[in-house]
Amino acid sequence: GLARNQYLRAPKLLSPRWWEMDDDTVWSETVGEDGALPIYFERQSAALSEEAETRLRHAADAIQRKFGTVSLQVSSHAGDGEDDEDNRRLEVERTQAVKGSLIGLFPGLDDRHFDLRAGGQAARALTEPDRGVVTVQVVKAILPGEHGFHFFPGYYRHLFDTMRRTPILDSQGEETGRTVYDNLTVAPQQSYAVEFPPSKTIDETQDYAQIAMRIHRFLVTCPARRAAELEDVSWWQYLQGWNPLTGMPLYVYAPAFSQNVKFSGRVLAAFDAEWGDAHTNGDTYVQLQLNAWTAKKTFDGILNGGETDAWFDPWRRYLESRGVEFVSARLESFELEDSCLRAMVVPDGGMDAIADDEADYYVSATDVVNAEKVTTKLPTVGVPGSLRGYTTIVAPCPPWVPGAAEPWRQETIVRNPVEQPGLRDWDRLQTLAGVQYFFANDFKLVGGYMYFTDADWALSSINPQQFWTHRPTLEKDGYVSVMSVDVGDWRTPTTTPVLLGRPAWKCSEKEIAREVWRQVTTSLLRRTPDLILPQPVWYNVDKNIVFGDSPAGAPKANHTPYQVPIVGDWKRRPVGDPWDPTPALPNHLHGSLPDLPAGVWQARHGGYLVHWDKLVFAGTYMRTFTRMTTMESANESARNAVNAIIDHLIAARYGAKIRERITPPSSAAAAGGDLNSNFTRDFPRPSPLGDYCRIWNPEENELPSAQPGRDLDAERFARGLPHLWDALGIELPLSAASYQRAILNGWWPPPLDPAAAARAVARLPSTDALFASLAKIRQILVQDADGRE
Ligand SMILES: Cc1cc2nc3c(=O)[nH]c(=O)nc-3n(C[C@H](O)[C@H](O)[C@H](O)COP(=O)(O)OP(=O)(O)OC[C@H]3O[C@@H](n4cnc5c(N)ncnc54)[C@H](O)[C@@H]3O)c2cc1C
Description:
The protein is an alpha+beta fold. The protein folds into four domains: about 10-145, CATH 3.30.1330.60; about 190-295 and about 705-789, no CATH class; about 325-390 and about 565-670, 3-Layer(bba) Sandwich (FAD/NAD(P)-binding domain), CATH 3.50.50; about 430-560, D-Amino Acid Oxidase, Chain A, domain 2 (2-Layer Sandwich), CATH 3.30.9. It is globular.
C-alpha cells in the first residue's frame, strides 16, 4: 500500500453548471435545470427499463469524458409504493440499481464515489404518482490530493519489474498489451531555486575536487567494508573524510558549499547529510548518479496521470481478474493462543474485532508505527521482538555527536509516534508531507522537480499535470494546473518574522499553506526578481496531518511519519537480512541468524523470518538491499517476504514430497562446487514451487569501471587491511590544500579553547608524512608504468 495516495474531494468552485458545458445533445436534452439527470421506474418496480439503461449509458459516457473522477449524488423518491414502508424499500432498491449500473458502465467509479439518498430532496420535485424517479447529480470533482507525486528514479528495478508485470485491462477485462510501466514518462528536468553552487569563494574547484575524491573512494570501497565501517558514520562526516581515531576531517569545505550539501538531502527525502548514515546515503547517491555516469537506458520518471488512475486502479483490476479479493478492514492485532496465530480484524464500518485464523500465511505490510502496534500482544521474538519500542521509544543521542553527554540528550523518551514524531534530530521518525496548490491557469515551473535549497522548510515541488495524458481543464475539473510541494523539514523555525520564527509543526493548516507559498515565491524571486507568479485558487494540506480543533490549531498528529536512515540505526532494524536468490552473486549480508527462538523460522540461506509458520513482515522499515525509505525498498521488502513464504512452503510443508522428486546432486555439487557457477550472473534461481521473486542488490549494479577497485578492496578487507587509499594516504595532498585554503579564509580552525586547538594542531599530518605519502604514490605509479612497459 502507498499511504501517500489520497483523493481530495473539493466542491467544484470554478466550473460552471456541467450541463451547460458543451453542446452534446445527450445532456442538453436529458438534464434538468438543477443539473439532475432523472431516471424513471415503472410503478412499484426497482428494475431498470431499457430506456433507463440507455440514459445511464449515455450518462456514464459523458461523465467519463467530461468530468473524469467525480462524486455523484444519487437521490430517489417514491410515491408509487403500497405504503410508506414499501416506498422506502423502493427508494433504497432503485438507488442501488442506478449505482450498480453506473459502476458497471464506468470502470473508474466505485463505492467511494457515491452519495446515496433514499428519500432525497433532489428527486422529490420530479416524482410522479404512478412512477418513481431517481436523480443523478455531479456534486463534487475529486481532485488528486496525492503527495509528492512520486518520483521514480531510473535506478529502480524491483518496482519497474512489478509495473511491467501489471497489465492494463480494457473494459471487457482483456489485456490491452500495455502495462502500468507504460504509464511512466520522462521527467526531463531537475532544477534548483538557488544559484547552484551558491558559494562564490576563491576556489570552488577545491570543494568539487574534495567531494569527487570522497565519492570515488566510496565507489572503490567493497560492500563488506561499507557495512562494517560506514554505517556508524554520517554522510557528511564521510564527505569530510572524518577520521574516528583522530576526530579530524580530511577536508574543510567552503561554508556555503557545506550548507548546500547538508541541506540537499533534506530537500530530497527528509534526511540531511548530517544524520543519514553514509552507507545508505552513499549507495543511494551512486544509484541516482548512474544515469549521468553511464549510458544506461533507463530514465527518471513520473506517472502520466494521478497515481490512482495510472497505477493503482489497473493494478487492482488485474489482481481481481486473477481472483484476488480486496477486503477493506482494519487489522487490530495479531494474537497467539496455544501456538496458533490469528489476526484480529475490524471490518469497515464495524466496531468489534473478529478473529481470522484461516489464513495459510499473513503478510503484514503496514507502515512501521502500525507494525509495532499490531504486534504488541505477541511474544518478543523475531520481528515482533525487534519492533518492541521501535517507534514508541526515542533513544539517547548517538555518542559521536558533539555534546552527546548533556543530560537532555541522554534522555530515553517514551512517546506516541503519531502525535510526537521528530522529537529529536536523531529520531528515526520525522515528518515529510506537504501541500498541493491548484491553479486556474496553465502553470509549471520546470519540466520536472524543483528543489528550493534556500527555503527554511526544505521544499521541493513538481507540477505533475504537464505529464498527464488527460490534462485537467477549468470546465471539466475546476483547475488547470497543480503544484505539489513537499515540506522536508517540519522542525526548523522560519527565519522571517511572519510566523514569529515558528516551525511548520507549530502552525495551523492555513498558516502552513500561506508560509510554504511565501517561501516558494521568495526563493524564486530572489533568483528572478521580475517573475510574475499566478495565485493558487485553492490548496490541500496532506490529510494525514491532523490539526487541532480550532482554526488556529497546530498539527496534533502525523499518521504517516517518515523513517529516516539515521546513523548507526541499521543494526536496530527488525531482524532478518534480505536474501538475493541470484546464485552467482555473493550475499554480503549476514545470512541466517544463529539462534532462532521457538516460533521463528528462517531458510538456511537466510532471508526474512516466518513467525509461527504463518506470519511474515514487509515494509520499508525492514532490512532491504535498497535501504532508503522509498517505494523501491517497499517493493523489495515485499519480494523478500514472498521468497520467505516460498522457502517455508518448500521446507516446512512440502519438503519431503519435493525432495523425492529432485534429481540427485551432480558430482560437482557433491564435491562442494557450485552447480550454477556457469550460469550468467543474471540467472535467477528457480524454486521447485515456482520462481523466487527476483531481487536486485544495488551494490551489485554500480559502475563497472569501479569494479576492479572494489574487488581489490574486498581482498584487503578480508585480510583485515585498511582501504588502499587510506594506507597510501592518497588524499593527504588534497587535504593539505584544503586546510591551507580554510586557514587563509578563516574557516578553520573553528573557535576552540586553546588546549583543544593545541591538540588539533598536533594531529595535523606532518610535512614529513605528506612527503612520504607523495613518495609512495610516485613509487606505485612508476612501478605501474614499468609493469605496463
Ligand atoms: C511526502 C512523501 C513523498 C515521497 N516521495 C517519494 C518518491 O518520490 N519516491 C519514492 O520512491 N518514495 C517516496 N516516498 C516514500 C514512499 O512513499 C514510502 O516509502 C512507501 O510508500 C512505503 O510503502 P509501504 O508499503 O512500506 O508503507 P505505506 O505506504 O505506509 O503503506 C502501509 C499501508 O498499510 C495500511 N495500514 C496501516 N495500518 C493498518 C492496519 N492496522 N490495518 C489495515 N491497514 C493498515 C495503511 O493504510 C497503508 O495503506 C515519499 C513519502 C512521503 C511521505
